[in-house]
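Lab notebook, bench 4. The sequencing result for the construct came back, and we need a structural model before the next group meeting so we can plan mutations. Quick request posted to the team channel:

Model the 3D structure of this chain.
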Amino acid sequence: MQQEQNAPQIIKTIGEQGEEIYMKLLEIVTVNDNDYALLSLVEEDTLPSADDNDEDEIVIMKMNKTDDECTFEIIEDDDEFNIVAQAITDGDEIEEE
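Done. Here's the predicted structure in token form:
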């Protein structure tokens, strides 16, 4: 079953300081057989509605999938980040969620 197109997917994660962080999943990009998530940070008390099109800062994180969960990690390697950013700019292999 496909998710409704206009409904944003909100992800809750834990930040470096142990705080809860909410992010809206914008897209998933596959580069060199790895998945990367384009995320927009949102405040808990201002979670976006389906018609919210204002995108603030976009974060790119590497996705690690297991059978029962998906985790996100910061891309620490500058070369890897640049390759992913270039693929996003070029529109290569983008899979919309």
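DSSP finds one helix and six strands in the chain.
Will bring this to the meeting.
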